[in-house]
Specification:
Layout (H helix, E strand, L loop, with lengths): L1 E7 L8 E7 L6 E10 L2 H7 L16 E8 L11 E4 L2 E3 L19 E2 L3 E2 L6 E2 L6 E5 L4 E2 L6 H4 L5 H11 L7 E5 L5 H10 L3 E6 L5 H7 L3 E4 L4 H5 L4 E6 L8 H4 L2 E9 L11 H5 L4 E4 L5 H14 L5 E4 L4 H9 L6 E5 L4
Parallel strand pairs: 12-13, 12-15, 13-14, 15-16, 16-17, 18-19
Antiparallel strand pairs: 1-2, 3-4, 3-10, 3-19, 4-5, 5-11, 6-7, 8-9
């Protein structure tokens, strides 16, 4: 085993603090990655503060990881030392399940999260990307296109795939009107990817404070949801609505914006349930769905797509010792649009 340095949450009520821990010994199918950058996701905050009720401590958050391969096992064929590699939201899955489906592995039993979980042995904790290294099976590591800014690519491993997957599944593209609810770390990726797919993108944000950014990143329209006229103007407009909001809100007004037989997809995860009225669904034969990240196969597809179109996250690069301040700023929506930790500062 080798020691790693990072920052950890040790209790739901305490700030993250420096933490030294052991990484598991590499197996023949593992690679070792020297982490260069790690994105901060809102779900890191939820889990560090036990807001979903399933936290394990000590916890090293982080599932938007990019770095350089420093060692490879004897059975590794996909990577070599010196390659750029990424790790997203999970590091293992069930390989023997009767329901195994490589396109849907993130929905199958046996998924092992990158942090706040245990390895397949059932005892070894998984620790995430707020650290200087990680050991991972080569089949759960991603190849990073050389054309993309390295630091700004990190958030694609969660925010990017979280939007790419529903946009692809619900067939966003030319001729489709798509609304992105929320112009934050997730939402701005939906704007960029949706526009690159050829869809007509509308941003629905609480105010117009980020309108200039939204239009610059690819949106055609931008509306404030704190204006009641927005819901009157846009009634029955959209083929697809994706909600990226991580706080509880009334979804019923948004459902009224869908066309007949269209869908609203939730990707943000609030702490508390959102109210839904049956008439919001049955009046237009509308669907309310959810979507969660993507498979390794689809995540690589997303990275290749972003490489082709030059898509990365809009980021603010921070030192590791700024992580607690960054958490508070995320909660205040005071970042445009994703914090990324420079692992060299650990």
């Amino acid at each position: 085993m080798a020691f790693a340095k990072g920052y950890a949450a040790t209790d739901a009520s305490k700030p993250l603090e420096p933490f030294t821990f052991e990484r598991r010994a590499p197996n023949e199918d593992d690679i070792v990655i020297d982490i260069k950058y790690s994105g901060i996701c809102h779900s890191d905050i939820h889990q560090a503060r036990n807001e979903w009720g399933n936290s394990r401590y000590p916890m090293v958050p982080g599932h938007e990881i990019v770095g350089i391969v420093s060692a490879v096992g004897s059975g590794v064929t996909k990577f070599k030392v010196g390659d750029k590699a990424g790790v997203g939201c999970f590091v293992n899955s069930c390989t023997t399940c009767a329901t195994r489906d490589l396109d849907l592995e993130h929905y199958m039993p046996g998924l092992v999260q990158t942090y706040n979980d245990v390895e397949a042995d059932g005892t070894t904790p998984t620790y995430g990307g707020y650290s200087d290294s990680i050991v991972v099976k080569e089949g759960y590591a991603l190849s990073i296109p050389d054309t993309l800014d390295f630091a700004a690519t990190a958030p694609l491993l969660c925010a990017g795939i979280t939007l790419y997957s529903p946009l692809m599944h619900w067939k966003a593209g030319p001729g489709k009107k798509v609304a992105i609810v929320g112009m934050g770390g997730l939402g701005h990726m939906g704007v960029k990817i949706g526009a690159a797919l050829g869809a007509e993108i509308t941003v629905l944000s609480q105010s117009l404070s980020k309108k200039e950014d939204g239009l610059k990143l690819g949106a055609t329209h931008y509306y404030a949801t704190n204006d009641p006229k927005t819901f009157e103007t846009l009634a029955g407009t959209f083929d697809l609505i994706i909600s990226t909001v991580g706080v509880t809100m009334d979804l019923n007004p948004y459902l009224s914006l869908l066309k007949l037989d269209s869908s609203m997809v939730v990707v943000g995860v609030p702490e508390k349930p959102s109210p839904i009225h049956a008439f919001s669904l049955i009046a237009g034969r509308r669907s309310l769905s959810g979507s969660m990240i993507g498979s390794i196969k689809e995540t690589q597809e997303m990275l290749d797509f972003c490489g082709k179109h030059g898509i990365v996250s809009e980021i603010e690069l921070i030192r590791m010792d700024q992580v607690n301040e960054a958490y508070e700023r995320v909660l205040k929506s005071d970042v445009r649009y994703r914090f990324v930790i420079d692992a060299a500062t650990i």
